Amino acid sequence: MAFKKIKGATDYYPDDKYAQEKVFSVFSETAEGYGFSKVEAPAIETIELLTAKSGEEIKKQIFTIEKKGSEDLGLRFEFTASVARMFIEKQKAIQKPVKWFSIDRVWRYERPQAGRDREFYQYNAEIYGSANPEADAEVINLAIDSLLTLGLSKDDFYVKINNRKLLFGLLSDVVPEEKITNVIRVIDKRSKISEKDFETELDFLGKAAIEKIKKILTISWDKLKDLKMNDNAEEGYKELSEVIKYLDSDIIRFDITVARGLDYYTGTVFEIFDKSGKYRALAGGGRYDTMIELFGGQKTPATGFAMGYSTLSMLLSEKKLLANKVPGPDYYIATITEGTDEKVIENAVKIAGKLRKKASVVTDLMRRQLGKQLSYADSINAKNVIFVGPEEIKKKKVKIKNMESGKETEIEISKI
Amino acid sequence: MAFKKIKGATDYYPDDKYAQEKVFSVFSETAEGYGFSKVEAPAIETIELLTAKSGEEIKKQIFTIEKKGSEDLGLRFEFTASVARMFIEKQKAIQKPVKWFSIDRVWRYERPQAGRDREFYQYNAEIYGSANPEADAEVINLAIDSLLTLGLSKDDFYVKINNRKLLFGLLSDVVPEEKITNVIRVIDKRSKISEKDFETELDFLGKAAIEKIKKILTISWDKLKDLKMNDNAEEGYKELSEVIKYLDSDIIRFDITVARGLDYYTGTVFEIFDKSGKYRALAGGGRYDTMIELFGGQKTPATGFAMGYSTLSMLLSEKKLLANKVPGPDYYIATITEGTDEKVIENAVKIAGKLRKKASVVTDLMRRQLGKQLSYADSINAKNVIFVGPEEIKKKKVKIKNMESGKETEIEISKI
């Protein structure tokens, strides 16, 4: 009987965990460089909170907990709701803007596939309190900077940017208000379905409207300037123009089809993709100015993004930007004994204790012969091997071998 | 309608998260100094795994997941089972000893109280493959070193140490084999119940046996030497003597009552307590040589410990060893404008971008008046404030004010 890990989850062995933590350090350092502070909500939240912005529909995707006490509980499937709850609790006490980020697990009951686990990590950042375009630009620039700091370049990824008011405004000229949500739902999956299926799904609008929608969906940034727009579209266009001023035009592409599904976004929205088109979105986010109020807080503008680790790590690995080996210890202390010589072991442990004040040190623990110890030292990539035996203890000197250069030096034990 | 966090969980706001991460860094660095590598199992495991070593009884404490697919799932309540599963999967491929640690969440459905949340963090370390006393000593020394590196001293905590074979051996002279587990269960809670309740619970053994047990439970290390012991007790005594040789006698206290409950331990066991006696155990662990085989792997000796963050953070806080404030950004860029001057904002954003290559920088985002900006800069503990206005842009120079010393300097924008 051997146990299995659950479907759609990852065991992080040392090399993978090391690679992941390197990426997370870059996230943290970049976010802190922008003045964001790390926060962390519990993994378990009430179902009431989890379904508040997406409705009961989302429950299918939530890992719900069997009820024991009075609470209906589930594992979070994203951070925004939890962090909003935390923000609302302190919102009167802290000066705005509040800039928070998290790097943590989320859970979604979905069909597992490449780049999509049921348990996975997200890097999430939000700004509460600023309605200005420089706040939207800041979260987008933070996402971009995080990727650049990981070693990716402008040749590897780009940011699709849009504005919900602009998209809604343009559509509202063609589609009755109450049907826009349905149309957005279809636009959102357009890249995944055929032209014909796209048209079939919009059938309820009639041929003429479908043609107009298709035209809207191919509109370029330059053409927008000359377009006569309604107020809503005009406002979205103006907002987006102001955000774009603060962004690197080499990385940004206007794309009217970016809708961010049925989510809670109200203004500028964006998604980040790898240029090869091989992977799912690396990140997505945007402005959501109504959610804090909807959640029972004081009306507060907000903007943020989430970036998944699964897809990103595949891209980093392909580009050879993911660490692939945990570094070995600075020293392995090999014990030279005939049979078990406890005095030698005690000396090795003592030397290890002294060295650990400034270095990482591994001792034998197995009472093996020297050959096997060296094979072990090699398997863990030890940088140096120190040899301790009865002779060495008598002479009060040990030999240190640098495993890369092969160079050997001798040092007095008392000077270690 | 405002949402609440669940019972028995913690929201980590920036200051608390910062303090926690500082502690976790010390854990990681200390463990890496001993050559341990970080690993991470999923939070969700199969019920089969979770109940394998503790039986169905433990299910009361598990947050179980409502079944959706074919798997019965729950949240882990400790790490050992998950890490054992990971070890077994690779056991043939890696050289022993395997030294792994984790710092991560666990969940227990218990009554929340001070120092005991339902969702909490543990630091866990295990060595697989060595049956030698220096391995036991290494995990104990790692736990001790982790606490010392956090700034605690020998005056703050101590390690209670015992050996299960010794305790079982001594008890087996007095108690029938099949009743020892029951007796251990009572010994385990002895410090929490009255003398009278202790005797009542052991009533089934008869008065004479109870008196003998009470005598065993007061035995000192020195007295053991002269005691005539059965083979099992003798073996435990010898094991413990060998482990103790590698430990600091100032920190270690032999305590025959340390049983580690109904757990899977087979040899040396230990628990770490604060000296004031105010808190629950800081850590606990020991040797478990049968579990890997029980879990379907090849028989492998193992030893390890777990240390909780909740209790430890209370002790660290009391001793003023817990960070209490997230550090502020290096620079706050204040924009001096009459009304909104987008050129000034653009310049501020540009300067921030340049500075972020080497420092953390916050810009206004709110288009506030200078006074309010300075109040905000103060609230986030900004170390320096840079002033950017139309005059500064014209002169191509900005003023930098050190917020601690009040000293002001001027610098050319091009030199930032």
The quaternary structure here is: homodimer
Low-confidence stretches of chain A: none
What topology, given as strand order, has the largest sheet of chain A? Answer: 1-4-5-10-9-8-6-7
Main sheet: strands, sense, barrel of chain A: 8 strands, mixed
Question: Which chain pair has the greatest contact?
Answer: A-B, 93 and 93 residues
Element-by-element helix/strand order of chain A: HEEHEHEEHEHHHHHHEEEHEHEHEHEHEE
What percentage of amino acids of chain A are in beta strands? Answer: 15-25%
Number of strands of chain A: 15
Distance N terminus to C terminus of chain A? 48 Å
Class from helix and strand fractions of chain A: alpha/beta
Whole-angstrom Rg of chain A: 28 Å
Residue-averaged pLDDT of chain A, rounded?
A: 94
Number of helices of chain A: 15
What is the general shape of chain A? Answer: elongated
Helix content of chain A: 25-40%
What would the keywords be for this entry?
416 residues, alpha/beta, eight-stranded mixed β-sheet, homodimer, 36% helix, five-stranded mixed β-sheet
